[in-house]
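hey
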């Protein structure tokens, strides 16, 4: 595992989904281990919870927390002084040469330049929303 944060949980658990969405929105890198599909992950959860299957279980730099809320996770991340990943256009372009897509940025347009400017994913979302709005107007005009 490469990241400092690991989440052990299931796809159908609302609290697991909420924690994963928070980490994604905040741009923290984390590893997700689905205990329904990974027997080693399930054994780890059972061992840490005295044989009970309680999840999500979050590990932040070797600190194990059982069923944390987003507020508790925020506090733990602050205590460990973890910073979100800021990807720049140069970083993404460098990784694009290595493989087909960079995690989380497969649809973002990458421009190679010497400036270290953060990639603005929100502008891509705004452009998609504007395009969807235009297509809805076209659909209404055909009726």
């Amino acid at each position: 595992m490469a990241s400092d944060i690991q989440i052990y949980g299931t796809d159908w658990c609302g609290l697991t989904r909420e924690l994963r969405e928070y980490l994604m929105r905040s741009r923290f890198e984390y590893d997700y281990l689905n205990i329904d599909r990974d027997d080693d992950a399930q054994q780890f959860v059972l061992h840490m919870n005295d044989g009970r299957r309680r999840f999500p279980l979050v590990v932040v730099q070797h600190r194990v927390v059982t069923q944390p809320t987003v507020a508790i996770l925020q506090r733990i991340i602050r205590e460990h002084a973890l910073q979100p990943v800021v990807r720049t256009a140069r970083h993404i372009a460098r990784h694009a040469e290595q493989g087909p897509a960079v995690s989380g940025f497969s649809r973002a347009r990458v421009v190679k330049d010497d400036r270290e400017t953060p990639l603005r994913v929100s502008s891509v979302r705004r452009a998609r929303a504007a395009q969807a709005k235009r297509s809805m107007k076209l659909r209404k005009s055909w009726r």
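The radius of gyration is 19 Å. The first strand starts at residue 5 and ends at 9.
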